[in-house]
Amino acid sequence: MKPLKIAIQKSGRLNEKSVELLKNCGLNFENYKSSLISPVSNFPLEILFLRDDDIPEYVQDGIADLGIVGENVIQETEVEVTYLQKLGFGKCSLKIAVQNNSSIESLAELDGKSIATTYPVILDKFLKSNNIQADIRTISGSVEISPGLGLSDAICDLVSTGGTLKSNGLKPFADVMSSEAVLIGRKGSENEDLVQELIQRVQSVLRAKE
Ligand code: PRP
Ligand code: ZN
Ligand code: MG
């Protein structure tokens, strides 16, 4: 039987909890070191260690059968995947923030301003639904330093503890979406029985935690 593949984040906020969840499912495998694929010795499964941003597409395209990723990344990539289970970790929100000394205090005041983000798709929808015209500056990381450098008036980024905003002299003032890690799959997987068995293991780990 061809092994299933599950894609998880290689490094970052969701990596450790994703590995922990799979280990708690009774799966034996080596954590990511340099190989991007780790076989599971006691279940027909391979773990793929990827950048989180690529996970939804890998699942949509059938390269991976399952994936663990933040809802924010799924919304941003606009893929067709099936939400199988919320996982209860990686909770965060996508927020708009400005410098502590900024005069901007309401959504309406963003009109005509520039906002730096790595989430242009979600931000664009949010601004449209609030009738705000702002200039979205898409960058691929370190968004928090953008206002200080004069690159933008505001940012839109994920906030978890709030530590990153704080240490960069920023204050949040609008919530765009909240997010947590979810297990995703796709309709019509070749290995439906194995997929179901894995989902059940995940669900019983979550139930035991309640
Ligand atoms: C997010 C975000 C901030 C940080 C905020 O990055 O871009 O850098 O987390 O967390 P805090 O509020 O606890 O300080 P993430 O870990 O999602 O990594 P990525 O942007 O590289 O995918
Ligand atoms: Zn990322
Ligand atoms: Mg980041």
From TrEMBL:
Keywords: Amino-acid biosynthesis, ATP-binding, Cytoplasm, Glycosyltransferase, Histidine biosynthesis, Magnesium, Metal-binding, Nucleotide-binding, Transferase. Pathway: Amino-acid biosynthesis; L-histidine biosynthesis; L-histidine from 5-phospho-alpha-D-ribose 1-diphosphate: step 1/9. GO terms for cellular component: cytoplasm. Residues 51-203 form the ATP phosphoribosyltransferase catalytic domain. Feedback inhibited by histidine. Its cofactor is Mg(2+). The keyword Nuclease does not apply. It catalyses: 1-(5-phospho-beta-D-ribosyl)-ATP + diphosphate = 5-phospho-alpha-D-ribose 1-diphosphate + ATP. GO terms for molecular function: ATP binding; ATP phosphoribosyltransferase activity; magnesium ion binding. It is found in: Cytoplasm. It is an enzyme of class 2 (transferase). It comes from the Bacteria. Its EC number is 2.4.2.17. GO terms for biological process: L-histidine biosynthetic process. Catalyzes the condensation of ATP and 5-phosphoribose 1-diphosphate to form N'-(5'-phosphoribosyl)-ATP (PR-ATP). Has a crucial role in the pathway because the rate of histidine biosynthesis seems to be controlled primarily by regulation of HisG enzymatic activity. Belongs to the ATP phosphoribosyltransferase family. Long subfamily. This is ATP phosphoribosyltransferase. The gene is hisG. The chain holds residues 1 to 210 of 283 of the full protein.
